[in-house]
Amino acid sequence: MSNHDMQSASPAAPEIILVVEDEVMIRLVISQYLRDCGFKVIEAVNADEAIQILESPDVTVDVVLSDVAMPGSMDGFGLAQWVRKNKPDIGVILVGSPRGAADAAADLCESGPTLAKPYEPQIVVERIRRLLADRKPRGK
């Protein structure tokens, strides 16, 4: 049951998704899929690069889609905690192996959704849309 007709586009600009993934092929595939679904996508290789993007005054991000296991100064859980502390209006979806992810996610928040790899891109889009629907529209 494919929900490929997900053209329930927002009346304003498309939502911006920050994809944080160190594996190039995975990042390219999911980023292109999200673009095909009407999202604007920004890509980051690790949490450090993601934080630089999130701290930029010229960039607005609606959802961070991050791998759990990444090289750099922090993993996906650390990035999610940073986002919750510094940019609480941004939604976070973590992707990784289910082993160990459940415990760390439980510490994150009550609604820290995680997906197991390999994952279906359509499921990612459904999670993003659900997360965006639960949020209040951002004000300028």
Description:
The chain has helices spanning 24-36, 47-55, 76-86, 101-108, 121-134; strands at residues 16-20, 40-44, 63-67, 91-95, 114-115. By secondary structure, the protein is an alpha/beta fold. It has one domain: Rossmann fold, CATH 3.40.50.2300. A 5-stranded parallel sheet has the order 2-1-3-4-5, sandwiched between helices. β1 (16-20), α1 (24-36) and β2 form a beta-alpha-beta unit. α2 (47-55) runs parallel beside α3. The longest helix has 14 residues, at 121-134. Residues 1-10 and 98-113 have low confidence and may be disordered.
How would you concisely characterize the structure shown here?
This protein is of the alpha/beta class and about 140 residues long.
Shape: globular
Over all CA atoms, what is the radius of gyration? 14 Å
Major sheet summary line:
5 strands, parallel
Approximate helicity band? 25-40%
Helices and strands, in order, run as EHEHEHEHEH
Count the beta strands.
5
CATH fold label: Rossmann fold
| CATH architecture classification name | 3-Layer(aba) Sandwich
For the largest sheet, list the strands in their spatial order.
2-1-3-4-5
Task: Give the termini distance in whole angstroms.
Answer: 37 Å
Mean pLDDT: 77
Q: What features would you highlight for this structure?
A:
140 residues, alpha/beta, Rossmann fold, 5 helices, 5 strands, 39% helix, globular
Q: How do the strands and helices of this protein lay out in sequence?
A:
Elements: E1 16-20, H1 24-36, E2 40-44, H2 47-55, E3 63-67, H3 76-86, E4 91-95, H4 101-108, E5 114-115, H5 121-134
Parallel strand pairs: 1-2, 1-3, 3-4, 4-5
